[in-house]
Amino acid sequence: MSERYAIEMRGITKAFGSVVANSNVELNVKQGEILALLGENGSGKTTLMNMLSGIYKPDSGSILVDGREAVINSPEDAKKLGIGMVHQHFKLVDVFSAADNIWMGKERAGLVLKKDRYAQIREISRKFGFEIDPKKKVYNMSVSEKQTLEIIKVLYYGAKTIILDEPTAVLTVQEIQKLFAVLRKMKEEGHSIIIITHKLNEVMEISDRVAILRKGAYITTVETAQTNEQALTEWMVGRPIDLNIDRPVMETTRPLLEVRDLTIRSDEGSVAIDGVNFYIRGGEILGVAGIAGCGQKELCEAIAGLRPIEKGQMIHKGDNIVGLSPKKILEKGISMSFIPEDRLGMGLAPSLSITDNMILKNYADTKGPFVNRKLGRADAEQVIRELEVVTPSTETPVRRLSGGNVQKVLLGREIKAGPNVIVTAYPVRGLDINSSFTIYNILNQQKQAGVGILFVGEDMDVMMALCDKIMVLCHGKVMGVVHAHKTTKEELGLMMTGALDLSNKYEDKPAGIAKDSRFGEAEQGEEA
Amino acid sequence: MDKLSVITSFLHAIVVYNVPLLYGTVGEIVVEKSGSLNLGVEGIMAVGAIFGYMMGCFANSLGVGIGVAFLAGVLCGLLFAFLTVSLQANQNITGLTLTTFGLGVYFFVGTSLKAVKWPVMGDYSNIMKGFAELPIPGLSKLPVIGSGLFSHNIMVYLGVAIAVVLWWYLNKTAPGLRLRAIGENPGAADSVGINVNRMKYLHICLGCGIMGIGGYYMALNMGGSFNSNCWINGYGWIAVALVIFANWSPALAILGTFVFGFFNTLKVSGSTLAAAFPGGLGWLADIPSQVFDALPFIITAVVLVVSSVQKKKNSGQPAFLGLNYFREER
């Protein structure tokens, strides 16, 4: 073998306590290639890469850089060896400017900070082909700008091998294309790139070779050109899987939830949702698409009664729900489940058991000062059985479950209450293909049972396959509502960035207002 | 006493009796900028005070006193850093323990020493000489404020100089930038190759050393008379609050010290002011002294409330303050 490898990892094993994250993993990256690292949640992709970037130390196995054995004890060592990693959760100091975020890791930066560092950083960025404002503070940056800054940072430190951990998870379609162009250019310049993802279409598009991990074990490495999505999935999951998401066509009912002219402010006081109209019918899934932080969270909280609204109306089956307590709204059959970025922050109490989390929702139904644990345990058992939650027992603290199982518990509890409107935000956030499909099936079952579903999502492919209609938000404004089977990813991407506004596409029918609206029904009722 | 000299001595008292606060505050700012919340200021100042005073007297040298007080503070800092950085102990509990520990050491050493032979400050000529006032040429000749603000002992000048230098260090130097990065996001700092633990050890020790000097200054202010009240007398706690008032800036800490010092001094000089200006300030005499005793702490409470209510984007509070950093945490 005369092939030159930039990085070789041989027989890497790493365990956290009794959990083996990587077991005897092999990985190699050639100079000037893009290697995709593919695997389900918890298959050990990030752990493996963290050993390359010096965050973890392997229990056994060896790492070779440019053919020479290397010991990586810290990120400092990795940096010296020319390995740079763009982490999934960006490693940036929010209150620093772009330049200072780079400057803080500069070797021999001298004692005094000079003003000319801004110009130096701007010049270096240009050399790499990026245009950034070196004085811009990170907290003012978009996700895409932050990612660009991270890439410039690792290039500035002289990285020859660049690791990107799920870089596309938070980007729009257009931004992903831009990123891929950057990666291809870096590849041409001789950089080696490892990209972690579980989106198969991206693997096929960008990579030269694919390495696959399953449950911490190394499966194989294949040439991208000689494989396909179906084969990759089988390697990744370990058995054949149907990659199509069903979209059963249902007879829809009259609008269940209608929202008119809704305006909501964010915690900082800025307008988060701006004059929004929409409605949900029973038996349909309405998708909500938008770049992260475009008012999705505020909208969900307002519907659930957790956040006061500035102005506007919300009616449920003709009855006003503005100003009602979260409990009253729940009793009307509107359920909300929101999976935040950290995936445990909202809805479940992480240290409590599954049973206790079930009781949290319905403790008020039992009379007297004591909770009915028997009932709670029965509920827990039912959810575990029906949704195939993997857990040692009903008394296991929720935080000890894997991400997919936590999300199943949350969704399962919401569905148990028998809602007629489900508001769910990012229910498959961070989940692998297998768990995601379980969640889609649950949602489809609810839809077939006549429930109206508001699905706030981030993956365009999924939304186009699962939802009936998609509403696109941009900075709190509705850019239009499109039929999922008629739209394209490009169209959605343009709407998400505000470049395309379809909200006034039909002059005779204002977007988001149902023809058979239940608004005004109350007054008619009185007349009759 | 003529009216102007009352004002002069009032100003003078503000500076002399409150610059120890500045040491405590600035020391704590350095520690907190590294992301560590050290609630042991009171104890560390006490340890610095008793050892600084004892060794300073034995050597009959102010310099030795300052040096020993600094080292005693550094040792406390080392203990805090070992517990919270290396062993990942809870910072709040460790800090509170350090206060109890420091006061215990203070009384243990002090009482033991008193049983043998207590060193009386006045007996040590070099210390008295070193602690004497050094008027700044020119400025100290200004009417009224001159000898009030610009004629002080060397510890006052040293305290202000430390504050200014540290402001420059934190905001204008590359190591300062790295230190702030650690306080804001140690994971980010670590990922670019900054040695987080070494930086935290260094700056926790430096900050605690500065607190130790502040303690020594308190001892000298009290004339070295050892009795049932600790020399530090709650100043360490006020310093912790002053850090918030100063928005984590050593330069603003100078201002904060004088604001607090003003109310502190009213307690002592209120009646003198009332006697000198019966027309305008006569009402000061009618206020019970307990109100003045409580005033610094009331102000502290008000400052904490106001700064908590305000949501400042450019707050100087390090985002990772009070949290331990462990690289392999998942």
Structure notes:
The complex is a heterodimer of chains A (528) and B (330). Chain A is α/β, with parallel strands linked by helices. Chain A folds into three domains: 7-237, P-loop containing nucleotide triphosphate hydrolases (Rossmann fold, 3-Layer(aba) Sandwich), CATH 3.40.50.300; 244-335 and 424-528, P-loop containing nucleotide triphosphate hydrolases (Rossmann fold), CATH 3.40.50.300; 348-418, no CATH class. Chain A contains 17 helices and 20 strands. Chain A has a six-stranded mixed β-sheet, with helices on both faces. Chain A starts with a strand and ends with a helix. Chain B contains 14 helices and two strands. Chain B is 72% helix and 1% strand. The termini of chain B are far apart. A two-stranded antiparallel ribbon of chain B has the order 1-2. With 330 residues, chain B is mainly α. In chain B, helix 1 runs antiparallel to helix 10, helix 11 (235-245) runs parallel beside helix 14 (289-309) and helix 12 packs antiparallel against helix 14. Chain B is globular. Chain A binds chain B through residues 16, 53, 55-56, 74-76, 79-80, 85, 87, 90-96, 100-101, 103-107, 109-113, 139, 153, 157, and chain B through 172-178, 180-181, 184-185, 187-195, 313-314, 319, 327-328, 330.
